[in-house]
From TrEMBL:
Its EC number is 2.4.2.1. The keyword Cytoplasm does not apply. Phosphate binds at S9, R49, H50, T183. One of its GO terms (cellular component) is cytosol. Gene3D superfamilies: Nucleoside phosphorylase domain (3.40.50.1580). Residues 2-240 form the Nucleoside phosphorylase domain. This is Probable 6-oxopurine nucleoside phosphorylase. InterPro entries: MTAP, Nucleoside_phosphorylase_d, Nucleoside_phosphorylase_sf. Signal peptide: none annotated. Purine nucleoside phosphorylase which is highly specific for 6-oxopurine nucleosides. Cleaves guanosine or inosine to respective bases and sugar-1-phosphate molecules. Involved in purine salvage. It comes from Moorella mulderi DSM 14980.
């Protein structure tokens, strides 16, 4: 299986995959659960990041088990989705952003596979955290579908599960963050460490705290995700057949050498 989708808030359904079965994968970090189905003759994995019934909050997702499981299944390319708030007046609710960089404001997570000892001491290059080939395909496919998708944006990851304060959002904006979410760190880091191509489709669900005219709620996030679910599914499903077998990027080279 070379391609997997990691579905964020509001994306719990593998959509148009057929012959779906559940896989439980035991990893050194715990068990990961995903659905595997076929799409256009190819096996595709689907992993709901927060669990099938959205029971796992962002700070408790077992990111290491999830990414290790994908590696064990021989996945090479990951398309992930994330609901985000926007600090950038140019990025409005309902817009997609094909993220190209991140800032990390998390506090309590496990950020690496490389803890020394057997795994070694590895300093992974993060000059290009998100796969440029997947990013280009996502941007081109969205344009072809007439879906508004910004080519690039900086995702600032906060610890959650609370939303941010207005002062935090002003800080993030001043430091160059366009979007805020609670899950992409350490997910993108771990994916990059093990040489996966990782592309993130962020869906803006709200203007961030202090910019939005109203208090924030998870219900609002899910409502916007629901309204735009078809576009998101179309974008993912139209992108998948365009992903070449050969990887024309450096993602497989930047990570550490690992045996799964
Ligand atoms: N902040 C953090 N995470 C989010 C937001 C937000 O405003 N909207 C959706 N996920």
């Amino acid at each position: 299986m070379r391609i997997a989708i990691i579905g964020g808030s509001g994306v719990y359904d593998p959509g148009i995959l057929s012959n779906i079965r559940e896989e439980r994968v035991d990893t050194p970090y715990g068990t990961a659960v995903l659905k595997v189905g076929t799409y256009q003759g190819e096996e595709i994995g689907f992993m709901p990041r927060h669990g099938e019934k959205h029971t796992v909050p962002p700070h408790r997702v077992n990111y290491r088990a999830n990414i290790w499981a994908l590696k064990m299944l021989k996945v090479e390319r990951v398309l992930a989705t994330a609901a985000v708030g926007s600090t950038n007046p140019g990025y409005r609710p309902g817009d997609f952003v094909i993220v190209n960089d991140f800032l990390d404001f998390t506090k309590t997570r496990t950020y690496t596979f490389f803890e020394g000892g057997e795994m070694g001491v590895v300093h992974t290059d993060f000059t290009t955290p998100y796969c440029p080939e997947l990013r280009r395909l996502l941007v081109e496919t969205a344009a072809g579908l007439g879906i508004k998708a910004h080519d690039g944006g900086v995702y600032a990851c906060t610890e959650g599960p609370r939303f941010e304060t207005p002062a935090e959002i002003r800080m993030i904006r001043q430091l160059g963050g366009d979007l805020v979410g609670m899950t992409n760190v350490p997910e993108v880091i771990l994916a990059h460490e093990v040489g996966l191509c990782y592309g993130l489709i962020a869906m803006v669900t709200n203007m961030a705290a202090g910019i939005s005219a109203t208090p924030l709620s998870h219900a609002e996030v899910l409502e916007i995700m629901d309204q735009n679910g078809k576009n998101l599914r179309d974008l993912i499903m139209q992108t998948i057949p365009r992903i070449p077998r050969e990887r024309n990027c450096r993602c497989s080279l930047t990570g550490g050498k690992i045996e799964v």
